[in-house]
Specification:
The protein has 15 helices and 27 strands. By secondary structure, the protein is an alpha/beta fold. Among the domains are: 181 residues, Rossmann fold (3-Layer(aba) Sandwich), CATH 3.40.50.980; 117 residues, ANL, C-terminal domain (GMP Synthetase, Chain A, domain 3, 2-Layer Sandwich), CATH 3.30.300.30. Strand 13, helix 11 and strand 14 form a beta-alpha-beta unit.
Length: 534
């Protein structure tokens, strides 16, 4: 049997026991919470879950902006022995409904900004019995009982449950390596593992640090950046409820003077494109990047302009955070760096055998933070989780001195701004348009060498549709980050002798016909390209 260990007690209670309860834990919208206040709020939420009859191992869903209530709610769920399930706030109501139903959760917490998709989702989710509304979010509850957050946390607080280190604590939904959203299940012990590996040994995080992350708390990347790492050492997290933009970042830099800044390559490119002063990041001692490979040219442009280094790395939702990273003083631009202490890495050929340095191979990782599997996805679990090893779905090559370079994905999934996009899902939406006969979605690099989704479309005979019309069609039926950045009209698709679409030829065709500028974000587009690894 594993040791007794509760992640919430690890992140909060021990700081109070050390007499550090008056340290600032959270800064958000001009407000501050001390460790004592965050602890008390999490304990009160845990007590509220008890009164709702939420039991050990039961899932609690969160659809909320990055704010103290979301952070305290996740910690409170762990404290009570429940499983925290922070869910993407970028999903439509029907997309969210599929996740709510899949999780089997009976309790859902929502902030006002997301009341509409939650109202749609719970109409089709009869398991939801309780909806907890932050700031009186206007939710149409269907058959659920609605409880205001303020009322829920006004009762008796709860002490941390004596959970086992191997007990489930966190589910994170990801499209991962198969394109179908599924929950990667993490133990309480996994939370400590990432703090003591990447957090301590790569970031070198200390109590004096202030962390600000573009990736939100519902991402594995953002959860580590904004919650796990700072709280593990008694540092401060800076939470931002608004969607991140370069202007919002500049505002936070001035008001909160963070020392650690976390973003994706796409957002670093957006910062360079914005008219920001060169001293914007003067308080930052180090930046970190993940979600997709950081091109060497983009790295050099950022570091030269703003004077702060970036540690690029690779992680995944299934590994909870980064397991290969560049390190301070040893950055090699264009690579993901070297293994994070505590993780073993193997590159394997198609027969499962290790490949020599300089030879491309499939990336496998082993470490204490690897998920136990996917919820109710036996086939996917058997494919991705291979004993102690995790098959990441990435292709890499290792140099003779131990640096790993990303060669891309080993399947057709692609990332838009660090978030997995399943071409099949976008294709399904486009095929529902009456004017579309065939469609294939491929990744095409923009001016910063970051892949963006492009839809290659064959229009049905006798029909007509414009590029703007088809992109808007995707906006209305999918999360904004999944929309194609461009639509390329073609007469037919190149195929193999067996009739399979030759996607590599479509990619080359798109690269020839579309300028990198055509793939830049449109002014009205949501900032989906800022979200952490999943």
């Amino acid at each position: 049997m594993s040791e007794t260990f509760n992640a919430a007690a690890y992140l909060l209670d021990r700081h109070l026991e050390a007499g550090a309860g008056d340290r600032i834990a959270v800064r958000c919208a001009g407000q501050e919470l001390t460790y004592q206040q965050l602890h008390d709020l999490a304990a009160a939420f845990a007590g509220g879950l008890r009164r709702l009859d939420v039991r050990t191992g039961e899932r609690v869903l969160f659809v909320a902006s990055d704010r103290p209530e979301l952070l305290a709610g996740i910690l409170g769920a762990w404290r009570s022995g429940a499983v925290a399930v922070p869910v993407s706030t970028m999903l439509t109501g029907p997309e969210l409904a599929r996740i709510v139903i899949d999780s089997g959760a009976r309790t859902l917490v929502v902030s006002p900004e997301f009341a509409e998709p939650v109202s749609v989702a719970i109409q089709d989710a009869p398991e939801i019995a309780h909806v907890v509304t932050i700031d009186d979010a206007a939710v149409e509850p269907a058959k659920a009982t609605v409880t205001a957050w303020a009322d829920l946390v006004a009762g008796v607080s709860s002490s941390p449950v004596s959970t086992l280190a191997d007990a489930p604590a966190l589910w994170l939904y990801t499209s991962g390596t198969t394109g179908t959203p599924k929950a990667a299940m993490h133990r309480h012990a996994n939370i400590r593992a990432v703090c003591e590996t990447y957090g301590r040994q790569v970031l070198g995080i200390e109590a004096t640090d202030r962390c600000f992350s573009i990736a939100k708390l519902f991402f594995a990347y953002g959860l580590g950046n904004s919650a796990l790492f700072p709280l593990s050492v008694g540092a401060t997290t800076v939470l931002e409820q608004r969607r991140p933009t370069p202007e919002v970042v500049a505002e936070r830099m001035l008001a909160d003077v963070p020392t650690l800044f976390f973003a994706t390559p796409s957002f670093f490119a957006a910062l360079l494109a914005a008219d920001l002063p060169t001293d914007t990041f003067r308080s930052v001692r180090m930046c970190a990047s993940a979600g997709e490979a950081l091109p060497a040219a983009l790295y050099r442009r950022f570091t030269e302009r703003f004077g702060v280094d970036i540690l690029d790395g690779i992680g995944s939702t299934e590994a909870l955070h980064i397991f290969i990273s560049n390190t301070a003083g040893a950055v090699r631009p264009g690579t993901s760096g070297t293994p994070v202490p505590g993780y073993d890495i193997e590159l394997r050929d198609d027969n499962g055998q290790p490949v020599p340095d300089g030879t491309p191979g499939a990336l496998f990782v082993r470490g204490e933070s690897i998920a136990t599997g996917y919820w109710c996805r036996t086939d996917a679990t058997r494919t991705v989780f291979c004993g102690e090893w995790l098959r990441t779905g990435d292709s890499y090559v290792r140099s003779s001195d131990g640096y790993y370079t990303c060669l891309g994905r080993s399947n057709d999934l692609l990332k838009a701004g660090g978030i997995w996009v399943s071409p099949a899902e976008v294709e399904e939406r486009l095929l529902a348009h009456p004017a579309v006969a065939q469609v294939a979605v491929v990744g095409v690099p923009d001016s910063d060498e970051l892949d963006k989704p492009v839809a290659c479309v064959v229009i049905a005979a006798g029909s007509a549709a414009t590029e703007d019309e088809l992109i808007q069609w995707c906006r209305e039926g999918l999360a904004a980050f999944k929309r194609p950045r461009a639509v390329l009209m073609v007469d037919s698709f190149p195929t193999t002798a067996t009739g399979k679409i030759q996607r590599f030829k479509l990619r080359e065709m798109a690269k020839e016909q579309l300028t990198p500028e055509a793939l830049l974000p449109q002014p009205t587009a949501p900032a989906a390209a800022v979200a952490a690894p999943g």
